[in-house]
Amino acid sequence: MRRPIIITAALGLVLGVPGVAGADPDVPDSRIDESVRPLHTARYVHDIDPAKFVQPLESEETSGGQVTVRISADVLFDFDQATLTGAARDRIARLAPRLRGSTGTIEVSGHSDGLGEPGYNQALSARRAEAVKAELARVLGGTSASRIQAKGLGETRPVAPNEKGGKDDPEGRAKNRRVEITFQKG
């Protein structure tokens, strides 16, 4: 019965895990290789730049008076679904006041990555665009709702390669799964 405790204590000493076998992250220990100290110790967290690891889930581009808000489909929908998540509804509600003051048509376009059959991706992107349109119409109400158009573009307009060096690129594919809302500033 003592064997698991000894193994845990030994691992704690080797890895420098706080609270295990007396390992203290603030006291240097010659038995601990500082280069492999766990990242969760407060001393090292400030060295991590989250921007290197986190892809923006929303971005905005403005050209003249036209604004395009690009939202990751991974934020709006569960995998392979076209039903908005609660977080998606909140995000759309926060965007709505800007759309009320816009002029002209509000365009909602759905996009997919290159995995799967093009026809399936086209249909999924169209259902997702329609889901965003319906939520915008619900939130905006009145005459603003009648100005919303939705279209699915599938994988036809990627913003990043789906592959790198002939291999799958999950980062690029994630950028391609998106919904864009384009409108004219009022």
What do you see in this structure?
The protein folds into two domains: 3-52, no CATH class; 58-184, OmpA-like domain (60s Ribosomal Protein L30, Chain: A). The chain is 38% helix and 20% strand. It is built from seven helices and seven strands; from the N terminus they run H-H-E-E-H-H-E-H-H-E-E-E-H-E. It has a five-stranded mixed sheet. It has a two-stranded antiparallel sheet with strand order 5-6.
Provide tags for this entry.
single chain; 186 residues; alpha+beta; 60s Ribosomal Protein L30, Chain: A; 2 domains; 5-stranded mixed beta sheet; two-stranded antiparallel ribbon; 20% strand; disordered N terminus
Helix and strand arrangement:
Layout: H1 3-15, H2 42-45, E1 58-63, E2 66-72, H3 73-76, H4 86-100, E3 103-111, H5 118-140, H6 142-145, E4 148-152, E5 163-164, E6 167-168, H7 170-176, E7 178-184
Parallel strand pairs: 3-4
Antiparallel strand pairs: 1-2, 2-7, 3-7, 5-6
